[in-house]
Amino acid sequence: MFKPTLDHQDNWGKCKPDNVKEYRGSVEKFANLLQEAAGSLQKVEELPMPDSKYENIGATSTAFAKAAVENDVVAHFESVVERWCSQTEHMLEERQPIAKDADDVGPDSEFDFWRVRMARFNNVAEQLKKPIARIVIGVLSTAKSKTLRRWKTCDNGITDALNEAKDNVKYLSTLEKYTEPLKSGTPEQIIEGLPALMNNVKMMLTIARYYSTQEHMTTLFVKITNQMIKTCRKGIEYVDGEKKRLWEQDHEDLLKRLEMSLKLNDAYQELYRVTKEKLQTQPKVKQFDFNESRIFGKFDLYCKRVQKLMDMFTTIVQFSALADNKVEGMEALIAQFFSLVDDFKRKQYDLLDYTKNAFDRDFLEYNVNIAELETMLQGFINASFENITSTEHALTLLK
User: Is residue 329 left, alpha or beta, with left meaning phi > 0 and alpha meaning psi from -120 to 50?
Assistant: First the structure.
């Protein structure tokens, strides 16, 4: 209710920008926690319970023995337990969404999944502690019902799943404060926090009972990478809180922000490898034996796109400088260059979307044209120096 108002609040009095940012981040986190809690409540499983007329059965061995010889009671209780089995088996079979490597999925999805799973299994465990649920199991045990064989497997599965979820939430919650800068920080801030993040991931691998599997840890790293890419893109696309096309931004400032993506990728992979090498000196502990192409592949692909954009905008900066110098006779070459740039500007795709290869085809064609233009430019410069008539003219060309 109040968050939209806070988002549009401009006057913060004597509060410094960093304090405002921190406060907004705290409100955002609290709102997400409330949303997460509401989502958990919506996903809880309500186990069916026996008809109310059976609630008067006492929770004693004598009462169980009396009820166990009544066929209608046993049949009704067996039908209830069969439904318990069906519901809990379905819950136990549920896994994280297959699209775990989707580009927009960050580590928050990992935290959310295990918290919701813990809440659901905890809710089931609490329902099974109800007196009437204990009576159902007591009567069927006394009657030696075959239904209990299936239920025992389910009951053990619930216990194991709840223990796994609780343990995973414990370690992921500790990690969460170290992943927060991935979402709210700049690439520079992320680089600064990388050692603490990597150290905590290493700790999870070493001591977490359930989460330290190769699949879990690889998935976590993939989601950390995804969030880094998202934050890098946001830092490039937004200027002073407003989204702008790359063409509309100050190109020299843009080049600096593009370069930060490369620096973050280098720092991330270097720290990963340093940590991996340190673990290799302790052969008795679990190792960073993960699928590195899955972890870093998308970041490398994204950085290849960033490098191409840096090449393009560097060339634009250079030709803009030539245009500002107004060298006589160079007007046609400069006009030809900016015509190529205008053609590129008309392309409708997102320049930073590294998953679309239409840019790569256009960039290849653009580079061929630029190479021809640079050859012509070199020819113009050589010819101009041969025909220099004054020192002033020579200095103009050298600029």
Answer: left
